[in-house]
Design brief:
This protein is mostly helical and 120 residues long. It is built from three helices and no strands.
Length: 120
Amino acid sequence: MRSFLTILGALAVIALGYWAYSQNIQTQQAIRAVERLQREIVVERERLAVLRAEWAYLNRPDRLRELVDLNFERLNLLPMSPGQFAVMDEVIWRSDTPPAATETQDDDVSYNSSRAEAPQ
């Protein structure tokens, strides 16, 4: 009986050692993953800082004013006037539902052509 308990204890120690080793490996992998993610975060923050600097450079008021002056004639740019704005009640909303089909359509082309010929 004593030898059975000794063997059982040894097996328990081996099993616990294996479990501790596997937990150690998993912990090391998790630490490496966290370090990799932290490095990626640093790189992305640097990239974001560069993009913000580029955005600020491209949106400088003097540069935008110069671009407006260069392209005024070609783009027909005009200052905004109050008449260009509308009240939400004046907006005509488009319906997202297709019109009901009264006859069966074999293909989309016949459907589109019959729809185009319909009086409005």
